[in-house]
Amino acid sequence: MIEHELQRTILNKIKFMVGGARYGELKLLDIENDLFNYHLQQLVKNEYLEKKDGKYWLTLKGKSLVTNIDDVTKTVFGGYKVSVYMCPVIDGKVLLYRRLKHPQYGYVGLTSGKIAFGERILETASRELLEETGLVADFEIIGNLRQIRKDGEGKVIEDGLFYVCFTDKVEGKLTEKGLEGEYFWTELDKVSAIEKIFKPSVEIIIKEVKLRLTVEVDWQTKFIYELEPAPEAY
Fold it and tell me: Is-contact 183 96, C-beta < 8 A?
């Protein structure tokens, strides 16, 4: 675990850079050069970063850590998290996003967010959707997923419970690109054809939503899955 806030800040900065970062791109302007360089080299020494071809890159160890660094507070939260998936569906289209940060840069999934301390589940869904996309909606819970994600060596790198929140009433203008991703609507029947999609969570949620839209399953029937996705590019 990384105790120093400056090192967490450096890692949080590089996780938004897909092609590595040069020293000057990582440099924090309000930090003295010697102090910054010391903490940067500590990250290399401890194998969170590696330097090659004149750039710094997140290692697999670094990627497994940055997924647990809060973008705002730069604190590292515990290995187990409770979050929401937001699933707005309008006229047969679902809102997805393409991830613009590590780990799994470029993967496509449903918008999600961590539940804040003391916050109600549906409040989180509405807040996160507004913050990320500019859209306003009220949600209902239709199920939940427990996901345990491991690396290629079988080590657990993520573990969490996701409440799946659905809405078919959305207001506002979509913000198509933000700090964390690019947001877009796509037809429900075309989701499975998207490359680099988060599996199996997205496919399961879309399947459950379609069952309810076709009245094969009642909306009051909640689904529960415990998933252990196969290791993907991290």
Answer: yes
What predicted TM-score, i.e. pTM, was given to this entire model?
A: 0.85
Q: How many CA atoms lie within 13 A of 10 on its CB side?
A: 31
| Beta-carbon contacts of residue 58 (< 8 Å; ≥ 6 apart) | 11, 14, 15, 48, 49, 66, 102, 103
- Contact between residue 19 and residue 65 where contact means Cβ atoms under 8 Å apart: no
- Domains detected in the chain: 5-66 (1.10.10.10), 80-227 (3.90.79.10)
Which residue reads 């970063």 in tokens? 49
Residue 232 pLDDT > 70, yes or no?
no
Instruction: Give the integer Cα–Cα distance in Å for 47 and 31.
Output: 22
**Which among 72, 90, 108 has a CA at the least distance from the CA of 209?**
90
User: If DSSP codes are grouped into helix, strand and coil, which group holds residue 22?
Assistant: coil
Residues 26-41, mean pLDDT to the nearest whole number: 90
pLDDT digits (tens, 9 = 90+) for 187-214: 999 999 998 999 899 999 999 999 999 9
